[in-house]
Amino acid sequence: MKKKILVVDDDLDLLEQMTAILAAAGYEVTAAEGRAGGEEAILKMKPDLAILDLMMEEKDSGFVLSHQIKKLYPELPIILLTAVAGATGVSFATQRSDAQSWIKVDKIMDKPVRPEQLKAEIRRLLGETPANKGGGHS
What we know:
5 strands; Rossmann fold
């Protein structure tokens, strides 16, 4: 069975691109527009992984949605995509345990994210490749 991935963003072009990239990689993709769309989708399905944009309708929409998802499915891996670092120079480090306690995501990636990088992170979080396996082709 194909792994199900939920992608939530308020940028329709990005949703379309991500859906095409992930579907071509063999995943079943559900795209949801904005936080409200993400909330609706998560009540209808249990994805194997979620990819959320940080800033949608509100500056913290991605954080709020990740908290809601983790309440329903604590083990579900979540990738948060953000353009904040590029725009402000602010970086979110999730390696520190104090940061992990309030940032309910498994990986934060800066936009624009390269498709190969995203697919590698998805495979890692879904346990589809051994941790010691080398990184792919460039």
